[in-house]
Amino acid sequence: MKKKYVYEFKEGSAKMKFLLGGKGSNLCEMTRLGFPVPQGFVISTDACNVYSRTGKFPQGMEKQVWSSLKNLEKKNRKKLGDPNDPLLVSVRSGAAFSMPGMMDTVLNLGLNESSVQGLIKQTQNPRFAYDSYRRFIQMFGDVVLKVDGAKFEHALSELKKKKGVKLDTELDEDDLKTLIKTFKRLVKKETGTDFPSNPKEQLKKAIVAVFESWNNPRANVYRRANNIPDDLGTAVNIQTMVFGNKGNDSATGVAFTRDPSTGAKKVYGEYLVNAQGEDVVSGARTPQPISKLKKQMPKIYKELENLMKKLEKHYKDMQDIEFTIEQGKLYMLQTRNGKRTAQAALKIAVDMVKERLLTRKQAIGRIDPNALDQLLHPRLDPASKYEVLVKGLPASPGAATGKVVFDADRAEELGRNGEKVILTRWETTPDDIHGVIVAQGILTSHGGMTSHAAVVARGMGKPCICGAEDIKIDLGNRIFKTNSTIVKEGDIVTIDGGSGEVILGRVPLISPSIGPDFKKLLAWADGLRKLKVRTNADTPEDARKAREFGAQGIGLCRTEHMFMAEDRLPYVREMILAETDEERKVALDKLLPVQRSDFEGIFKAMRGLPVNIRLLDPPLHEFLPNYCDLNVDLVKMQYENAPQSKIRQKEILIDKVRTQMEANPMLGLRGCRLGLIYGGIYKMQVRAIFEAACNIASKDSAPIVEVMIPLVAHANELKILREEVIEVVEEILKRRRKRIRYTVGTMIEIPRAAITADKIAEYADFFSFGTNDLTQTTFGFSRDDAEGKFLPNYLERKILADNPFEVLDESGVGKLVELATKLGRKTKPNLKLGVCGEHGGEPRSVKFFHKVGLDYVSCSPYRVPLARLAAAQATLADAEAGAREK
Ligand code: PEP
Ligand code: MG
């Protein structure tokens, strides 16, 4: 049998999303439900993939297109290109996952010099017909024939200037005829050939353009940023045109079944009377809120509201629809699950459980843990005083501060250098995507809540303000003006995407907290998950914050961060540079009380929960002054004739620092090796920990302490250090007559440790996988060098699918985690297992750790809620997999 590439709307359903794309499969579904959908057919993503591979349509596809077209013509009783009553179609892209505005669309296809006459006959509206024709040439010219779109816009503005009018709608029939001639001339000049008049040729070319748009640069960038696989391909939707620009009884709009910003249950959207879809989506004209439609066309509004209710019930999710009203008749052009802010996602999920549309488990499965990051973004400090420069539409919540930048290239350039930028545009287009990705926030002076900037920013969880019309951008001079102020490129502004306020300068931001919907959903998640979630915290403030976010203990307290504090650093340096054990002891004695008080603070904040403290880990040179800087200082001192004694001191310091230098500090004297070579350091730390624990312990609550030895490669390292630790602890507990629950364990962060985990487990009460170092040592990459030098290239060339420092490399590093888990538990079935590398807060990796059977993950305080949700979703995935197997 011939392979089927073309599906009429009545042949498909929502289940065929991967074959027919999101848009196509939902058009089929709406047709099945009996909704008023202009009919059409879909060319499958398979066909696109064949085209991408071979540069040709797959065999048989074209024949199927012509046969479906014939059926469509019959259904509509109109023919493509008919000089009396022409059928016009739209040709739109549509992948399995929505990629707003990234690929191409052509409207009004089928118009030429004779069919335009047919359109006039049928509508008795020459202005409308010529306007449709000029729009078609413009869109087809830009999208299919690749004539620079700005050239058409320029010709249009020139004509308006000449006629002394401001709006496109003020151009009359004759003006539009002139414009059509100008556009055609432009096409001839730019492409060397006439604008194609044969409608079938137009259709074939448009299909090619949509297929090819799957691989255009902005679509590629978008896919990478949103983890959409490159091999899905796009479908092509060919649909009967209906017109929202046939006069004042016609309109076009977009609407959501709930507010995509807050999640509130009310129809939310925008529309434009006498306009075509692209006018709303592109933000070219500022649309009206949908509430006005209720007054303007009450019957239609009621019908629309009803259809939207039905859709939401059917899909059990918030829908984002496109509609057109043609001379008083409503048509549905699209429905899809609407993009929403994290805040809205939570509210909608929780509300839908209340409304019995979803079960709790379904609600948990609905939330993308990564999206919660948005809610954990900073807000403007309400205590701070500031003056609002201008106000725009609050399009995507969160606050951000950065330098004003007027174009995406510049934003990317500065962003790459670590600068914070606010991309400030008249409106954004899909071509700005690389700038949007690096920007802290987006500010546009035009467009509504459903404009490109708003949709994309919400999807990415970036603060965004749209339609700040009081900002006049002067691109030539790289400034924007408001009534009162001139702001130059590079000036700092703060934007609040939740209120729409733009503020000149920096405003203090505060960290967020968790709202009631968030709390409820996380409580449901806690009821499901098996993995515990701890936090990585080195200060009492972090520990408190994490506890507020639901952390069940500390999984990693990095003691070196305490050593870095300014008031300790001189003692730490003294300790490192000491030449004798006595000298070292003097320095350690000074450090002991400060370490002790650090631990007291942390134990208090985590009362009742386990605290895992890692003994000193990094190479010592990290605490010492930079060798090159010291030499520069020395030369300066010599040049300035500093006293000889001072110069001598500096020389001695330089000498000592040099002796500490290593060729590969990451693989040098660090971790447990430090503890073994400079015995006093670990002993002092253990003393500080347990003296603090004894000080804090009360009758009914004592700290639960886990002492962790880092970077063990051989069981013998741990054997010695464990004995030393226990000796110090027991001596203190005996002296203080206290009972403190404690365990001693190790990190698994070197392949050898993972491979010999059965031996290491003999001396460990727990393992914590240090997947940061385990990734470095398994790949043989140093993270700083890799991310700075070659990883971007690896990702670009798809040598690696993800950055392994962000998403756990399951097939390599993950194998070692699995192996060490098995070996460790073979020796000690009750060995406690956790992970404290950054992967502990990354949702995909969390799912892996669940699968392997770890007891807990530990991550930074702000990622604790994400990990709680991801862990619950991992349990759900287990249950689903189990159900499939049965
Ligand atoms: C690790 O290596 O994963 C780890 C948590 O330790 P650090 O990042 O401090 O080296
Ligand atoms: Mg480490």
Multimeric status of the protein: single chain
Task: Work out the helix count.
Answer: 34
**Main sheet?**
8 strands, mixed
User: Low-confidence spans: pLDDT under 50, at least 5 residues?
Assistant: none
What small molecules are bound in this structure?
phosphoenolpyruvate, magnesium ion
Could you say which structural class the secondary elements and strand pairing correspond to?
Answer: alpha/beta
Indicate the percent of residues in helices: 40-55%
**Radius of gyration, whole Å:** 32 Å
Mean pLDDT: 91
Total beta strand runs:
33
Give the strand order, joined by hyphens, for the main sheet: 14-24-23-16-17-18-19-15
Roughly how many Å apart are the termini? 34 Å
Structural description of this entry:
This protein is 47% helix and 17% strand. It is built from 34 helices and 33 strands. A hairpin with a 2-residue loop joins strand 11 and strand 12. The protein has 886 residues and is of the alpha/beta class. The relative contact order is 0.06. Strands 14-24-23-16-17-18-19-15 form an eight-stranded mixed β-sheet. Strands 26-27-28-29-30-31-32-33 form an eight-stranded parallel barrel, surrounded by six helices. Helix 5 (126-143) packs parallel to helix 7 (173-191) and helix 18 (516-528) crosses helix 34. Bound molecules: phosphoenolpyruvate and magnesium ion. Phosphoenolpyruvate (PEP) binds at residues 556, 558, 617, 749, 770-773, 836-837.
